[in-house]
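Board notes (copied after class):
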Amino acid sequence: MADLAVSCAGVALRNPLLLASGIWGESGESLTSAWEAGAGGVITKSIGSRPRPGYPNPTIESYDRWGMLNAMGLPNPGIEEYPQEIAIALRAGATVIGSVFGGDAEEFASLAAAMAKTGVSAVELNLSCPHAKGYGSEIGSDPARVEEVVRAVTRAVRIPVIAKLTPNTPDPAVLALAAERGGAAAISAINTLRAMAIDVELRRPVLSHRLGGLSGPAIKPVGLACVWQIHEHVGIPIIGVGGISSGRDVVEYLMAGASAVEIGTQIAFEGIGVFERVGRELSELLDTLGFARASDATGAAHVPAA
């Protein structure tokens, strides 16, 4: 059996399968359930400075099993209330990474410092949500602002800082390099792609916010390409995100350059049991391919030019 334990950004994970931020981890109980279902670590919902209700319904449009369109609007209980949820997951023994979003470098640093006090192993910066005005990709599409935010956060905390980047950019490697210069310990790539749907009978957008973000299997080729490009340019670990629904998908991301991956939308389609199934498939495929450890597959597809 291949050894699935990996280390990413200085965080020891029992396997490379992380619960992605946003789909499941709003409560301590849901974080715990993902951990107990076999996740190697869990990432919280993105938390802001104050409670935020999010956008009115409809906020989600599902496309069979190939994708999901959403514009939730970053709903969350705020940083003052959320630590009690993290405490529940930590008591269960989970490896927890805290996700935060802010409007500028100062707010990110303040939130990250508060998150670090909860006992999380690392903090992930949501620099990539495509549908929240004043947040996410509006900040994370500018390399100078990415570097500024990451540098402010790394000065404010002693735990590893992970920058989650947007695919809605001409060159994700430029953003990754900016995050690396700012002191990021790892990169998460990618968040959702900006997208929309229109109800032709009603003659208006399906989502109340109009524009949303596309996730799920449909975006896996985009996620892989971003991880590949980033791996060619940065020296820090990469967490692959986007469309992972099988052990083979995980191996593709590892070979493209990822050290770990995040699973999100597939949970909505299949349930939390996805972690056990994908972990089993991953172990079997690594054995078949002759890899003794999951970490041995990282970057394996990057063959030097002849």
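Comment from the instructor: The CA atoms of residues 101 and 126 lie 5 Å apart. The chain has a mean pLDDT of 94.
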